[in-house]
Amino acid sequence: MSTDNRLQNGSCVxxxxxxxTVLGIEGEAEWHIAFLTNLNIPGNEAGATVSxxxxxxxxxxxxxxxxSLYRVCTNCAESASPNFPKPVLSLLGVDAPTLHQx
Length: 102
What we know:
Elements: E1 21-27, H1 29-38, H2 43-53, E2 66-71, H3 74-80, E3 88-89, E4 98-100
Parallel strand pairs: 1-4
Antiparallel strand pairs: 1-2, 1-3
Helix pairs in contact: 1-2
């Protein structure tokens, strides 16, 4: 997944601590929401995060598959699932590990 749209600084989507690491997610909106809920973000907040992150009104999500980068710290990724890849630094030219919906 290309990293050209990454922000320079930010907070982990789960714990809100500063982090410069990201993971990519590719799939339908429900796949993105499931990823966020695995990070212990409540379902309603996960849905709102997906809506806001895709420029949709609250409660609305995009149709079909799409890819997004989520700023996630290593601790939250490791705590969420041993199957999550290790987040990488958000640097231009570095591909982020991406979880793909089957």
